[in-house]
Structure formats: structure tokens, C-alpha cells
Specification:
Strand order of the largest sheet: 2-1-3-5-6-4
Distance between the termini: 35 Å
Bound molecules: 2'-monophosphoadenosine-5'-diphosphate
Low-confidence stretches: none
Structural class: alpha/beta
Helix content: 25-40%
Radius of gyration: 18 Å
Order of helices and strands: EHEHEHEHEEHEHEHEEEHEHH
Number of helices: 10
Largest sheet: 6 strands, mixed
Length: 271
């Protein structure tokens, strides 16, 4: 049976095996998808061993996405732009990298959250790896403005510099977010994952704004609850996880699984 895994550290909590098992059942594809915890300093050797044993592909999660890109023989344009890969596939003895995170976020916003990005004003909080992976796919949907606000403003400026040619993107200091009436605020910082609270810059948002945490489940609970308490519509990133998984599944198997049944089944886990 074709073998796949999600590789991370820690990774035991990952929902990816469950998601791919549902996809496999629904599409009738015979595959096995497990978790693989690589040592923090041992991603390369774990991956070499994994693929040498005949495995077909892997999803790469924290903290290995940058190493995932470096590990591959070749990479898609979107993975190169992101500087990170969450997807590896073995093809003809070579490892190919891709990044399906941005496509997952866009699909979740557009399809599941019914938020149309075109012409809207987006505030992204955070300028680390998670943020970098989704900037180009967001700009490809032609928002009116994308502001990247970071605690360390220099890092936001550095990130914005990489994407300026792709659309209207600007950097800002998270401590003084411009009041631009944002329609969407994305939490792309690592605060939720680390169990820290991140304040919502309420004055910078439009009254109908959607607050979206790219983390999911318990991690995203504090941010989502605070946004709702302030009267905003809010959701976690479970849909992004499921949509990036569907994109990965299609790249591996050539078949697009439906995501709605998975979201329904995992719904109780949502923040
Ligand atoms: P990831 O791959 O999860 O994005 P990262 O590359 O280490 O992780 O980036 C973490 C991001 O979360 C950064 O934007 C970081 O801000 P700094 O660049 O100023 O460090 C942001 N972040 C982490 N903790 C934060 C906090 N308590 N408040 C605000 N931003 C925080």
C-alpha cells in the first residue's frame, strides 16, 4: 500500500492522518498515512530513511517547513516564493516539494467562510514562516490592500520587500496598526500555538471584519473567543488544514476529495 506521513516535532496531536483516512475512504484510494516525529536535528536523515523505504510522500509541519524545501530535488514556484514546503512527493526517484498552505487558506476563506478576498482590506499579524507561506496566494486573489504587521517591524519590512512586485502589500508595526478599516484580520503569529494571548487591534478593523486564526482547535480558542466577545465574526484554521490536505491529496493521487464531510466530522474540534 502507498505510504504517506506528516512529519513534525511535536506531531502526535496532528489531525492529518484522520483527514487523509477520510479522503482515502471517500475516494476509494488505497493508502496509509501516519505520523512521523523527526528529531529536531534529524529531519534530513529521517526523511532519507522514510523515502528509501518506499514511501510516496509527506506533509511537513512545524518546525521543518524550511528544511522540507531544502531537502527536495526540485520545488514548485509557490514553494520557492514561500521559502518553505509543507508537501513532498517521491516521483521517479526524485523528491519534489510544494506548498499547499496558501491555497488551503484561500480555499477556506472563499469556500467555507464565504469571505471573498478580491477588493478587500487584509491585516496579517505576524511575519514568520507561517505568514510568509500565504502572502503570495493572498495577493493572487487581488485584495485592495494587505498590511503585514509584526512585533518586530523590520521583519515585516523584510517580508514585504519579497512580495512588493506581486500586489499592494505594506509593512506595519503591530504596536501601532494603521486604522485602515480592515475586512479581515489573520493571526499568523505563533502566539496561539505557544498558548500566548494576542490582542486584537479592534480600532483598525471594520465592524463586519472576520478574525481568522491560522492555528486551530484549543490553540486558537483564546483568540477566537476574544474576537467574538468584541462582536466580530471569528474562526480558527481547521478549514485551512483540511483544504491544504485536500490540495496535497490531489497532488499525490490525482483526485480531489470533498472537504465538506471532513469539516463536518471534525467540526466539534473547532475553536
Ligand atoms: P512561524 O513559523 O510559526 O511563523 P516564526 O517564524 O518563529 O514561527 O514566527 C513567529 C511569528 O509570531 C513572528 O512574526 C513573531 O513576531 P517577531 O518577529 O516579532 O518575533 C510572532 N510572535 C511570536 N510571539 C509573539 C507575541 N507574543 N506577540 C506578537 N507577535 C509574536
Amino acid at each position: 500500500m502507498d505510504r504517506y506521513a506528516v512529519v513534525g516535532h511535536p506531531v502526535s496531536h496532528s489531525l492529518s492522518p484522520r483527514i487523509h483516512a477520510i479522503f482515502a475512504r471517500a475516494t476509494g484510494e488505497a493508502l496509509e498515512y501516519s505520523v512521523l516525529e523527526a528529531p529536531l536535528d534529524g529531519f534530513d536523515s529521517a526523511m532519507r530513511e522514510f523515502f528509501a523505504s518506499g514511501a510516496r510522500g509527506a506533509n511537513v509541519t512545524l518546525p521543518f517547513k524550511v528544511e522540507g524545501l531544502a531537502f527536495a530535488h526540485s520545488a514548485s514556484e509557490r514553494a520557492k516564493i514561500a521559502g518553505a514546503a509543507n508537501f513532498l512527493a517521491a516521483r521517479d526517484g526524485r523528491i519534489e516539494a510544494d506548498n499547499t498552505d496558501g491555497a488551503g487558506l484561500v480555499a477556506d476563506l472563499e469556500r467555507n467562510a464565504r469571505f471573498s478576498i478580491r477588493g478587500r482590506r487584509i491585516l496579517m499579524m505576524g511575519a514568520g514562516g507561517a505568514a510568509r507561506g500565504v502572502v503570495a496566494p493572498l495577493l493572487a486573489q487581488a485584495p485592495a490592500l494587505l498590511v503585514v504587521a509584526n512585533r518586530t517591524p523590520d521583519r515585516a519590512r523584510e517580508l514585504v520587500g519579497r512580495f512588493e512586485s506581486l500586489g499592494p502589500v505594506r509593512a506595519a508595526d503591530l504596536a501601532s496598526v494603521p486604522r485602515e478599516g480592515f475586512d479581515l484580520v489573520l493571526n499568523a503569529t505563533s502566539t496561539s500555538v505557544h498558548g500566548e494571548a494576542l490582542a486584537l487591534p479592534r480600532e483598525a478593523l471594520s465592524r463586519n471584519a472576520l478574525a481568522y486564526d491560522m492555528a486551530y482547535g484549543k490553540s486558537a480558542q483564546a483568540f477566537v473567543a476574544a474576537a467574538r466577545a468584541s462582536g466580530f465574526r471569528a474562526c480558527d484554521g481547521l478549514g485551512m488544514l483540511v483544504e491544504q490536505a485536500a490540495e496535497s491529496f490531489e497532488l499525490w493521487r490525482g483526485r480531489r476529495p470533498a472537504t465538506a464531510p471532513v469539516l463536518e466530522e471534525l467540526g466539534p474540534l473547532r475553536a
